[in-house]
Amino acid sequence: MAKIVGIMTTSHVPALGKAIAKNLQSDPYWKPFFDGFPPIHEWLEKVKPDVVVSCYNDHGLNFFLDKLPTFAIGTAPEYVSEDEGWGIPPQPSFPGAEDLSWHLRDNLVRDEFDVVSCQEMLVDHSFTLPMALLWPHQKWPVKSIPVAINTTLFPMPSPRRCFKLGEAIGRAIASYPEDLKVLVIGSGGLSHQLEGQRAGHINKPFDERFMDSMLNDPQWATQFSDVDLVEQVGNEGVELVNWLAARATVPGRVKLVHASYHIPISNTAAATMLMEPI
C-alpha cells in the first residue's frame, strides 16, 4: 500500500526564487532561511520518496477571480511552470503521478469534496519553489500531484474544512494498492500581509503557537474562521491552511525532524518544518 513517509511545510516567498536563480543562498539576507534545508536534503537522500502531493495556493497563473475553485487537483501527465513576472525562471516540467492522482480525485469526490479535476495545469511559485528548495539541482526524482486550495477569494474554505480535506487525502493515499512512498507538502505562510494599512503585519506569537500545534495539537487552528485567520496572520498569511491540510494527512502523532523560523523574508515570517509519522 502507499504510505506517507513525511510532511514538509515551507514558505514560498517569490523572492526566494529570484535568490535561487542568482545563487544568493549564502547572502546574509537569505542565508538564515536557506540554512534550514541541508538537514531536509539529508532526509530526502535517506528516505527517497516516490511521489509528492503538494497542498498549495495558485496566484493567478492557473486560476483567476473569474474561475477560482475552492479545491482543485491535478490529474495531468506533467505540470508546467511559466513566467510569473517575479524574476523566477520557469523550472523544468514536473512529471505527474496520473494513476495515484485519479485515485485521490475519485476518493475525494466519494468523500463529498467537490474538487475540480485538472487534466492540464500550470503551477506557480507556491508549487515550484518548495520543489526547488527540496531538490536544488531541479532534476525531479519524484512524480507530483498538485492540490490547489483557494486562499484568495472570500469565502475561503475554513481551516476546519481544509483539515478535513487533508484527512480525506490521507485516507485515499493509504488505500492506494501500489507500494509508494509519499511526501506531502504544505506550501505558504506564515503570517504576512503585502498590502493595505496592515502591510508588513507579522504575528510571531501566533506563528510559534501554530508551529507547535503541528506537533502537539494539529486541530488547534481549526477553531478559527477564514476571517478570524486573516485578522491573526494577514491576508496572505491564510496560506497556512495548506500546512493544516498537509498535516491532517497523517492521523496520528508525528516526530519533528527539523524546523526553522526567520523574520522577515520580504515582509513574511518564513518558516519550514519536516515531520515524520510515528
UniProtKB/TrEMBL annotation:
List each copy of the Extradiol ring-cleavage dioxygenase class III enzyme subunit B domain by range: 8-268
Origin: domain of life = Bacteria
> Which SUPFAM superfamilies does the entry mention?
LigB-like
Name the InterPro entries on file.
Xdiol_dOase_suB
> Which Gene3D superfamilies does the record associate with it?
LigB-like
Q: What is this protein called?
A: Protocatechuate 3,4-dioxygenase
Q: Which organism is it from?
A: Mesopusillimonas faecipullorum
